User: What shape does this take?
Amino acid sequence: MTIGTFFGELVKSLFKRPATERYPYDRKPTPERLRGKLHYDPEKCSGCQMCIRDCPSQAIELVTIDKENKRFVMIYHMNRCTFCDQCVQSCRFNCLDLSSEEWELASLQEEPLTIYYGRDEDVQFLLENQAEPGTEAHPCEE
Ligand code: SF4
Ligand code: SF4
Assistant: This one.
């Protein structure tokens, strides 16, 4: 490239719109089918474990607090999740969903990437008693 061509290109590019987007200052709406953070609805869960069995990344675990009263806590390891949607497809009770809006999930620490889903009292109970996933925890006497 001659120096004349170089300066010609330089001047032209000064008046062109940038090809890149100004993220994070400009944010476009995300596509409806984008697969972001997994959400879990404990109220609909039967504890069947199909989602756990079918997850290829071992990214989810289910702790049964009280099966009879359908009290479960799902532990979601977001750093292992490949957002493949398999768990969502496997759940017959529509408990799971990948958010199309929550997709900025990077973190330098591991802690925010482990999420406990369930009723507040069940998550609290699990954290206090640290029952092993896949086992049945024994709920506190009310
Ligand atoms: S989206 Fe895929 S990798 Fe992530 S928890 Fe569900 S099955 Fe596992
Ligand atoms: S497949 Fe659905 S109902 Fe079964 S344990 Fe997973 S979330 Fe619960």
